[in-house]
Write a structure and sequence with these properties.
Blueprint lengths: L2 H6 L1 H11 L15 H12 L3 H10 L1
C-alpha cells in the first residue's frame, strides 16, 4: 500500500475503520499530506497494533 492508495479511498476506509473500531474518532483518523506517520502513530497507540498490522487492516477493508 502506498500514500496514493490511502489518500484515494480514505473517506471510505475511514468510515469502515470507525465501524470496526468504534472508539476511533475523526481526530484519530485525520489524514493530511505529511501527516501519515503521525496518523499511524495515533492508530498504533489507540489500537495496540503495529504500523504493518494497521496497513493490513486498511488494505483489507
Amino acid at each position: 500500500m502506498n500514500e496514493h492508495t490511502i489518500k484515494g479511498n480514505w473517506n471510505e476506509k475511514k468510515g469502515k475503520l470507525k465501524q470496526q473500531y468504534g472508539d476511533l474518532t475523526d481526530d484519530d483518523l485525520t489524514y493530511n499530506e505529511g501527516k501519515e506517520d503521525e496518523m499511524f502513530g495515533k492508530l498504533e497507540k489507540k489500537l495496540g497494533k503495529t504500523k504493518d498490522q494497521i496497513r493490513k487492516i486498511i488494505s483489507d477493508l
